[in-house]
Every structure is written in C-alpha cells, then in structure tokens.
Specification:
about 100 residues; single chain; about 30% strand
Length: about 100
C-alpha cells in the first residue's frame, strides 16, 4: 500500500464528536476506517470490526495489537465489560510496557 494512502487513511476525515457510538478514546477523530487515538502518549490508530475484532497500530513503538472477542461496540459483554476496555488495555497497559 502506498505511503501517501496510509497517511490519508490515518488523518482525520470526519469529525464525529456529535455522533453516537464513537469509541471513548477516539476523541471524535475518524480517518478512512481508522479511529485516531493515542497509546502511551504516542499517535495510534485502531479499527473496530463487527463482533469484537480490534486492530490497533502504534507506529512509533512498532506495535500492532490484534484482539478477537465477542463484544459488540457499545454493548457490554456477558462478563460485564465493553469494547472500550480492550482499547484501554492496549493504550494504557500494553503500549506503556513496550520498550521505546
């Protein structure tokens, strides 16, 4: 994939602040199918798939995290946690543990 297209995909294209069902950690920023966020204070990007699939990329840490679960975004699981727990796990637990 061309570098310019990756840059375009991960640049804010839509302001979603006023829209419902946005991930809490995305700060209302959405590129082309990628939510724009931060992980351990570094720029990060994630895609949320139907059925609880999470793909998060933190380029400065050379980190890619893939999680498969059975959680619908905005709905708690039978165990009582939601998709935002998964992005929190990446942004505040996994990313900080990666050596810079």
């Amino acid at each position: 994939m061309p570098e310019h297209w990756v840059r375009e995909m991960t640049t804010e294209q839509v302001d979603t602040v006023s829209r419902r069902n946005q991930p809490a950690n995305a700060a209302g920023k959405f590129g082309y199918q990628w939510w724009i966020t931060e992980a351990d204070d570094a720029p990060a990007y994630f895609a949320w798939g139907n059925g609880g699939q999470l793909l998060e990329v933190v380029p400065s840490l050379a980190l890619v995290v893939v999680i498969a679960s059975e959680i619908e975004y905005g709905q708690p699981s039978s165990a009582g946690f939601s998709a935002s727990v998964l992005t929190f796990l990446v942004d505040h637990v996994i990313a900080p543990s990666v050596e810079h």
